[in-house]
Amino acid sequence: MKLIAGIDIGNSTTEVAIADIESKKFISSGITKTTGIKGTIDNVPGILIALNNAASNGGINMEDIKIIRINEATPVIGDVAMETITETIITESTMIGHNPTTPGGVGLGIGTTVYIDELQNLHAGDNVICIVPPNMDFEEAANRINSALDNNVNVNGAIVKKDDAVLICNRLKKKIPIVDEVELIDKVPLNMKAAVEVANPGETLKVLSNPYGIATVFGLTPEETKHVIPVARALIGNRSAVVIKTPQGEVKERVIPAGKIILFGKSKSEVEIGSGAEKIMERVDDVKPLTDVSGEPGTNVGGMLERVKQVMSKLTKQPLSDMHIQDILAVDTFIPQQVKGGIAGEFSLENAVGLAAMVRTNKLPMQQIAKRLEDETGIKVDIAGVEANMAILGALTTPGTSRPIAILDMGGGSTDAAYIDKKGEVRSIHHAGAGDMVTMLIKSELGLDSFEVAENIKKYPLAKVESLFNIRLEDGTVQFFENPLESSLFAKVAVITENGLEPISTKYSMEKIKVVRRDAKRKVFVSNAMRALKDISSTGDIRGIEFVVLVGGSALDFEIPDMISDALAKYGIVCGRGNIRAKEGPRNAVATGLVLSYLYGSGNNGQ
């Protein structure tokens, strides 16, 4: 038996296909996580694991493998950075948007801020918001408020330092909105008009998240109403809030100088990060083909772009001057940021731009990989065809496909596309931004501490644990269990993984998490798919493409293929997951193509 192995080193996985040269039949395949950064010598341990895995799956002796073929993919590294371009600033101790886990009461309360000790000195009919200091327990606080209510003082709300809102509210004769866990309660300004709002469970603010609602409460002029827009915007989605009007105090939204991106192509262009993703991508189109990108020194984006080049230079042992960024993807997003000047750990969703970059070097590292692999295995190693060409050959083994056809290879670091016409000519493109960027957007927008949790949210559907015996899935259906679930899961939002339910530590609802996840995928995968197909089209119009096959790890996602298919449907394009060799699904396209190009020649699809 004389065997050939095709090996595809991807950003996330290394895949192997093994076939018999004489019978021209495929025998087995293997897959493992890529070790090191794609296209570097660190890939060799992963290659050996995947190769042994494929040999084991096919009952093959390694000495029967006569040739190993790896693709000509030059090393590519992607990185992502976030640039916050706005921030909310509070001056003069005005508090907004505090959203504790368990506020007390419900409704809107308006009045003048006073310490609870002053309630006994007030007159009947006074409208106040009382402030409860940390040294007062909930029973005493409730008794004092009740006494004031008996004296016809209108205590319309309360602000508390400790986690006592519900305990106080449960003991009051009149239910009032109470916001607690205000850390710097001594900074709450006294004798100022304030509004406290607590929404019903499961609902969000109605008055204080509306600029006209704030204007109504405080009697603002049209000009003043313009200035409270950042306040209202910061409160959207909250269940509770306190807004205090001080003579000098204001809440403003400040644009942060986030730095410039300098684009080099057929011309040179500079664009501010603060201009937003749409403007950045317009400039990328203006100068393409992109030859390099740099960032303004001393900014996040400047540091990120320089770091990408330095990492690849170090890994490939090539001069830093030879490292060039060949593509970037900018995406508008939001990041929860602590409000400057807040007194209760308030957070606001601030405008930000996410940026993915991809740098390409020469092919020297692939030669190093080939030599190391030959030394390790004793098997002849060839560096074969261009990755996109190989992926096309593999994709054409999907039943129901023929030339002309386009593929979208969606991985962890990049989204690659290729098109083969009836004559066999291939056009390809590589774009920055794929699964890793989606994970980053999810992590940032939900304010998660763990990259792993964000990755799980990206990969798996959600559920809300409604009891120890049932969960409600994100599509609204209910699943019941014979045995009780872990008590730690009760009332939690969780992802449904192969290993069971994994709870998510977040304040956000299942619906919110779902929206963030789908938006992130749409911003990265759908937009990248559209621009990639446009770039490989001979006319620059994707309407000329009839068939698109989705390959790569992200094509296995439970919703990305449907999103892309929906986006392409209006152009009359047939789109779906590939099924390589009618058995591998969307994986193994490049590895299969490497084998086919040897067995049949690069002009034949191997069917």
Feature tags:
15 helices; Glucose Oxidase, domain 1; alpha+beta; six-stranded mixed sheet; Ribosomal Protein L22, Chain A; Glycerol dehydratase; DDRA; 29 strands; NA-bd_OB-fold; about 600 residues; five-stranded mixed sheet; single chain; about 30% strand
List the helices and strands and how they pair.
Layout: E1 3-9, E2 13-20, E3 25-33, H1 44-58, E4 65-70, E5 76-84, E6 86-90, E7 107-115, E8 127-132, H2 138-150, E9 154-160, H3 165-169, E10 178-179, E11 193-198, H4 211-218, H5 222-227, H6 229-235, E12 240-245, E13 251-255, E14 260-264, E15 268-272, H7 277-287, E16 292-295, H8 300-316, E17 324-338, E18 347-360, H9 364-377, E19 380-383, H10 387-395, E20 405-410, E21 414-420, E22 426-432, H11 435-445, H12 451-459, E23 462-467, E24 470-473, E25 478-480, E26 493-497, E27 500-503, H13 510-536, E28 547-551, H14 560-569, E29 574-577, H15 589-600
Parallel strand pairs: 1-4, 4-19, 7-8, 8-9, 9-10, 20-28, 28-29
Antiparallel strand pairs: 1-2, 2-3, 5-18, 6-13, 7-11, 11-12, 14-15, 14-16, 17-18, 20-21, 21-22, 23-24, 23-26, 24-25, 26-27
Protein name: Glycerol dehydratase
Short description:
Helices cover 29% and strands 30% of the residues. The protein contains 15 helices and 29 strands. The longest helix has 27 residues, at 510-536.
Tell me the fraction of residues in β-strands, as a range. 25-35%
- Tell me roughly what share of residues is in helical segments: 25-40%
Shape: elongated
Uncertain spans: 603-607
Mean pLDDT: 88
Compute the number of helices. Answer: 15
Please give the number of β-strands. 29
